Amino acid sequence: MNEIECALRFAMNVSISRWLMFVTLLLVAPVPYFLAEMGRVPPARLFQLTAYLVALVVTEGGQGAVLQAALLVGTQASAYAIGAFFLASAMARPLSRMRPRAAAAVTVGVVGCAVVCALVTRPYATPFSVEASQSNLTGVYR
Q1: 3-state secondary structure at position 1
Q2: Of 24 and 57, more confident
Q3: What is the pLDDT confidence band of residue 87, given thresholds at 50, 70 and 90?
Q4: Domain boundaries in the chain?
Q5: What distance in Å separates the CA atoms of residue 8 and residue 23, rounded to the nearest whole number?
Q6: Beta bridge mates, 93
Q7: Are 134 and 124 in contact (CB under 8 A)?
Q8: Nearest to residue 101, comparing CAs of 24, 19, 10, 1?
Q9: The predicted structure's pLDDT at residue 15
Q10: Which of 24, 47, 130, 134 is the most exposed place for a label (fewest CB within 10 A)?
Q11: What residues are paired with 41 via a beta bridge?
Q12: CB count, 10 Å around CB of 135?
């Protein structure tokens, strides 16, 4: 294998690691949000709430509080997604100095640990939930 093929394979592994960490951060990172009350949910949940609110704005018209809530939640979701991208890039940067198999093992370990921790613990605060105010990953998307 020549040096160019090796460098391309290596760069592709780091970009895949960055992408996997970014998606994991979007799906499991408990970030604070502010609406009527304060809570902690993953950014993907904020995008889901934004989609609900935008659908409500479209069906009901752009009336006051619903439009403001859609803009507020959408802005927070976008800011957290941008932050998650930069954090995933910073996490993937040291992987570029590792061998591809070691970088893949570290990526799988980090992603797996994040998902398991989000499933086992209750890091999310969902004030609008009818079931429980504290929940794990399965409870936050109900």
Answers
A1: coil
A2: 24
A3: very high
A4: 3-140
A5: 22
A6: none
A7: yes
A8: 10
A9: 84
A10: 130
A11: 31
A12: 19
Indicate whether 52 pLDDT > 60.
yes
CB 110 within 8 A of CB 99: no
Place of tokens 């992987």: 95
Please give the single-letter amino acid code of residue 130. Answer: V
Cα separation, 140 vs 35, in Å, equals 16
- pLDDT at site 130: 66
Instruction: Find the helix or strand (DSSP H, E) in which 131 lies.
Output: none
Tokens of 14: 């780091």
Q: What is the DSSP string of 63-119?
A: -HHHHHHHHHHHHHHHHHHHHHHHHHHHHHGGGGGS-HHHHHHHHHHHHHHHHHHHH
> Which tops the pLDDT comparison, 136 or 77?
77
Bridge pairing between strands 134-135 and 31-34: unpaired
Q: How far is CA 73 from the centre of its chain?
A: 14
- Residues 130/142, Cβ–Cβ less than 8 Å: no
Residues in the chain: 142
